[in-house]
Write a structure and sequence with these properties.
The complex is a heterodimer of chains A (403) and B (105). By secondary structure, chain A is of the alpha/beta class. Helices cover 24% and strands 30% of the residues of chain A. Chain A has eleven helices and 26 strands. In chain A, helix 1 crosses helix 9. Helix content of chain B is 17%, strand content 21%. Classes of the chains: A alpha/beta (403), B alpha+beta (105).
């Protein structure tokens, strides 16, 4: 069996590991990746990689010898032009055609680029790849100013990394609070306060309208007419799934490549995994697209099993994390659509958690320096528990006894 | 370089060469050791790299840190000698280390 994988991120790395560990697998694997790097972990890019605490070698999932020893063909720095599902081939930009028996799409996402005036000036950066992040890091210098457009996870993590590196950081968020899309107001307030205590300026309700400069960025203009002078800017305003290759070959896509609970697309010979997929989640009773390592890894395992003809349902409680300064935010579940929150602990103590309920059922927990609540949350959410708010707020009750 | 032995619950084991500075988790994933995933890449956020340390090595490896303890407490079948393997960096002192891989993560 000849397996071809398009896209060289975390999900791709996991499909390779899973296939190689499967006793029944005796085929060949070819990976085609647009980036020139071996599959690597993206989460550290906006954290330890940016501060210089982690090297490329440390973010790389497996060293080159791993692929050599196991006979995995790595075609890096290659773009795929098209997939021919009838001939079961993929054609590369360099003219090459590669045949497959099973194809895995792990194409991930790309950053949403601003289309505002001046948005292509030098000095405006995005954090998604090693190359982009390295260029940004090379522009870091103590006392230099950095403006971050977008107060989501990436924006705030970059702000924390830059402030830790001694830079003067300003975050501009168009909403009324940071991380508005993903966390409750208490959590946003905690993070705004924490950033301010590290001399990061947080400006909310600010809409950026453009960038000015001659050879490079000099200032950012805002809707209220104000202008902010800076030569360095990071934009973190979300990502877009790379589903064009799938769409172009007629596969169903809807905010990502549509797959079933086995990571299987409509085509029996094509699976997909990671940020690029739209998949069903039985715990939440809905289709979702996730941008997370957990999903990349767990769905990749399911994709490998589908390739091997032994499908197993992928259904997991999603989890995420964000490290900013010395604070660890761990999120489990999906809070969208919550109608009640319960606060456990006191944000002023630097450790607390927020329980999100929908019609009385626990759907998510945000744990700030509270690993216990996070770990129990994973079990509770899968079990659809109905927490008693009076017990949750009582910190004299141990986490294990809460429900 | 240090040799680390990963033993499965069925008694099978594999000796692996791990570079100094890499973690016990790195050694496992680079050598396709079943049962150790390390999904979060060593951020102490996922508990998918839980191992038991051989009794003779417990002292040399040392205890878990606070954040690690919080996570470990809720992992499957936690014991006195449980650690998250992403938090154990290999030094020359750990040459010969033996760890056991749990049945479930």
């Amino acid at each position: 069996m000849k397996v071809v994988i398009i896209g060289g991120g975390h999900a791709a790395g996991q499909i390779i590991s899973s296939l190689l560990m499967d006793e029944d697998f005796n085929g060949t694997i070819t990976l085609i990746g647009e980036e020139t790097w071996l599959p690597y972990q993206r989460p550290p890019l906006s954290k330890q990689f940016l501060t210089g605490e982690m090297t490329i070698e440390q973010v790389t999932l497996h060293p080159a010898e791993f692929y050599e020893t196991n006979g995995v063909e790595m075609k890096l720095g290659c773009r795929v032009n098209a997939i021919d599902r009838t001939a079961r081939t993929v054609s590369l930009e360099n003219g090459e055609t590669i045949a497959y028996d099973k194809l895995a799409l792990t194409t991930g996402t790309r950053v949403r680029r601003l289309s505002l005036p001046g948005a292509d000036l030098d000095g405006i950066h995005y954090v998604r790849t090693i190359d982009g992040t390295e260029t940004l890091r090379n522009n870091f210098a103590p006392d230099k100013s950095l403006c971050v457009v977008g107060g989501g996870y990436i924006g705030l993590e970059v702000a924390a990394a830059a402030a830790t590196s001694g830079m003067k950081v300003t975050v501009m968020e168009m909403d009324e609070r940071v991380m508005n899309r993903v966390v409750a107001p208490q959590v946003s307030a905690f993070y705004e306060k924490m950033h301010r205590s590290h001399d990061v300026e947080i400006r909310t309700n600010v809409a950026v309208t453009g960038f000015t400069g001659q050879d490079g960025l000099m200032a950012i203009t805002c809707q209220d007419g104000s202008s902010f002078e800076t030569s360095l800017c990071v934009v973190g305003v979300g990502v877009i799934p790379n589903s064009e290759l799938a769409e172009d070959c007629g596969l169903k896509c809807d905010n990502g490549i549509t797959v079933d609970q086995f990571a299987q697309s409509e085509d029996p010979d094509i699976v997909a995994a990671g940020d690029c997929t739209n998949h069903p989640n039985a715990i939440f009773g809905t289709r979702i697209r996730l941008e997370s390592v957990q999903n990349a890894v767990d769905q990749a395992k399911a994709a490998a099993l589908s390739i091997m003809g032994k499908p197993a349902v992928y259904c997991a409680v999603p989890w995420f994390w964000s490290n900013q300064f010395d604070t660890k935010l761990q999120i489990v579940g999906l809070s969208q659509g919550y109608d009640q929150t319960i606060l456990r602990g006191n944000p002023n103590d630097g450790a607390f958690s927020v329980f999100y309920l929908k019609e009385g059922i626990l759907i998510a927990v945000d744990a700030i320096n509270s690993g216990r609540e996070y770990m129990m949350g994973r079990k509770w959410i899968a079990d659809h528990v109905r927490p008693d708010p009076e017990r949750i707020v009582d910190t004299t009750i141990s986490v294990k006894e809460l429900i | 370089m240090a040799i680390v032995t990963y033993t499965q619950q069925d008694g099978t084991s594999k000796d692996v060469t791990v570079k100094i500075g890499q973690s016990v988790k790195d050694g496992a994933v680079n050598n396709l050791i079943p049962g150790i995933f390390g999904e979060c890449g060593g951020a102490c956020a996922c508990a998918t790299c839980h191992v038991y340390i051989n009794d003779q090595w417990v002292e040399k490896v040392g205890p878990a840190g606070d954040a690690e303890k919080d996570i470990l407490e809720f992992a499957e079948d936690v014991r006195e000698n449980s650690r998250l393997s992403c938090q154990i960096n290999i030094s020359e002192d750990l040459d010969g280390l033996i760890v056991y891989v749990p049945d479930e993560q």
